[in-house]
Amino acid sequence: MLADGAQLKTRILQELLDTVIQRDMIERLKARKPSMLRTFVAAALGSACHPLSARSISRWLAGEGLKVGRQTALSYLDGAEDVFMIRRVYPYSKKPKERRVNPKVYALDSGFLALVGGDSSKRLENQVFVNLLRRDAAVSYWRSRTTGREAGFVVGGKELVQVA
């Protein structure tokens, strides 16, 4: 009985995700290759809590045998953010140029993240991000310039929140 409930939950989430992709993204973006957009969404959600750029999306899709230009990949990324599926978070820096590169992507719906099988640390980091968003604060992530290592979120440019 419990397995039936989990299967039902998964099926409902998948149908919801399919509806969002079809109605909110494919139709809005006038995507000529819906299957490519669906593959992109799976990749974006699977990349939650990691840096994701239009270039990396293009390369990943090319590895899957799908040719997509950088501009199309950027359009898909913007579209996913416009429909509140994902949110890009940029690194904290006092330099404006450094604040606009290497965004990390977070899923705004934890159910969608669960569909692509994020591990527990990814789900925890993602949930912390969503809770910080609910505080209506400006959120960025901290990355050391010298080592490149990341260490949690910076909220409002003042508060450091460590996840693990």
Flag low-confidence runs.
Answer: none
CATH fold description: Arc Repressor Mutant, subunit A
> What is the 3D shape?
globular
Strand arrangement within the widest β-sheet reads: 1-3-2
- The sequence of SSEs as H and E is HHEHHEEHHEEE
- Biggest β-sheet description: 3 strands, antiparallel
Structural class: alpha+beta
Gyration radius (Cα, Å) is 17 Å
Distance between the termini: 35 Å
Note the beta-strand portion. Answer: 5-15%
Number of discrete helical segments:
6
Tell me the name of the CATH class: Mainly Alpha
Summarize model confidence as the mean pLDDT.
Answer: 86
Q: What is the helix content?
A: 40-55%
Q: What is the number of strand segments?
A: 6
CATH architecture: Orthogonal Bundle
The number of domains = 1
List strands and helices in order, with pairings.
Elements: H1 2-29, H2 34-46, E1 50-51, H3 54-63, H4 70-82, E2 86-89, E3 104-107, H5 110-115, H6 120-134, E4 139-143, E5 150-155, E6 159-161
Antiparallel strand pairs: 1-3, 2-3, 4-5, 5-6
Helix pairs in contact: 1-2, 1-4, 2-4, 3-4
